[in-house]
Amino acid sequence: MTAFGLLTLVLVALETGVAGLALGMFLALLPLPVYVGLALWLDRYEKEPLSMLALAWLWGGTVAVFFSYVLNSFVGAAFLAAGGKSAAEVGTAVLSAPFVEEGAKGAALFGLYFLKRDEFDNVTDGIVYAVMVGLGFATAENVLYYGKAVTEGLGSSMAAFLMRGVISPYSHPLFTAMIGIGLGLARESSGGSIKWLAPAAGLAVAIGLHALWNLSAALGIAFFIAYLFVMLPTFLGVLALVAWSLGRERAILRAQLAPYLAAGVLSGDELERIASPRARLRERVVALRLEGPAGWRRTGAFHRAAVELAFHGWRLGRGLGRGTEADAARERDALELLRSLREAPKR
Asked: What confidence score (pLDDT) does residue 188 get?
């Protein structure tokens, strides 16, 4: 990924110049902590490993961008030779970019879906990973657009930042979220046609939304119509879906961990805290104040072990285990970790 990232920077610098590249990177990275923070806020019950979230972001910002840049350039050259500058601009934006870019971004999600089954459980996971891939792609793409705008003056740079960083920062994450939703539905299904129809439909919707977005931008005033009546409702619909999925994750935690109350592994109060992100944070802050960093880490590990135990049971109930012996060993290890963390001496 490092090589692809460096190659992408070189290609961008050839278009923007060194000064444009530097300013473009500054403007692209400036709001990124806010966007990533929102993505992490969505992922608040069964949290995904930070290493995998970072990998998804890096894929979007390096591999996906590089291949999209190269392939779109070839397609643009073909349109330019066949129909001139206007044909190249519209053809690349509407007929090439949506297919190439969503395919490149979606490759990361399909890879996680097939290779990291224990970390890709449901619709929420699909959306969170898609958002990270989309943010990585948008960040790298914004470096190019902001850098090119520099050559047109400060006003053009600020206009580009307003449009891409404030009005529509969610566009790439939104498109790719359709793929994540499709894969999430496939993961949650017990079998049948939904296993392949949902991912295919998600990819098709992602491409369609992307094409509509680019086409409306090319038509000028149509952009605001598409923004208000298609993109914004879709964005709100995804947020509603996330809220529903998070509510179900909370219910899974309660249902799957309830049997461990009678066994003395957890208390009722502990279960309530585990099922509430806000209560988890309060408990970790208290542990930090009383025990220092070790208390913060211990409490976090206790929460993660309980959540993993709950979702392990949920996966088994849906026939997604690794085999009888492996599943039993995983449950046993999680229980032993919970007990050891719970009984650890408090300072």
From this structure: 87
